[in-house]
Amino acid sequence: MKKFIILSPEGKTIAPNENYEVNNYQVIGIVTNVKDEDEAIIKLLKENSWIFDAEFNVAEFILHELL
Questions:
Q1: Residue 41: alpha-carbon gap to chain centroid
Q2: Which of 2, 12, 16, 28 could pair covalently with 6 via S-S, beta carbons 3.0-4.6 A apart?
Q3: Which string of b and e fits 14-39 if b means at least 16 CB within 10 Å?
Q4: pTM for the full predicted model
Q5: Residue 35, SS3?
Q6: Max alpha carbon distance in the chain (Å)?
């Protein structure tokens, strides 16, 4: 079984110095014990309803397999 970290380019991060805009990715979650990326997205969304409430665009998610 595989393990994935799921990132999103959406949203924003505030630096300690609020005069600076920080462009980076946000970690949405880490999913374990799945066969592939599709199963990882499904499991993530089933276990984290806040993702829909926060209005993240699932099509923007970036998945990386963790070894």
A1: 9
A2: 28
A3: eeeeeeeeeeeeeebbebeebeebee
A4: 0.85
A5: coil
A6: 44
Tell me the pLDDT of the chain (67 aa) as tens digits.
999 999 999 988 788 998 888 888 999 999 999 999 999 999 999 999 999 999 999 999 999 999 9
| Residue 60 tokens, joined | 């923007």
Tokens 């209005």 correspond to: 55
Query: Do 3 and 50 touch, CB atoms closer than 8 A?
Result: no
- For the record, the structure tokens of 36 come out as 């592939």
Q: Cα–chain-centroid distance for residue 28?
A: 3
Length of the chain: 67
What CA–CA distance (Å, rounded) separates 25 from 12?
A: 8
2, two tokens: 């595989």
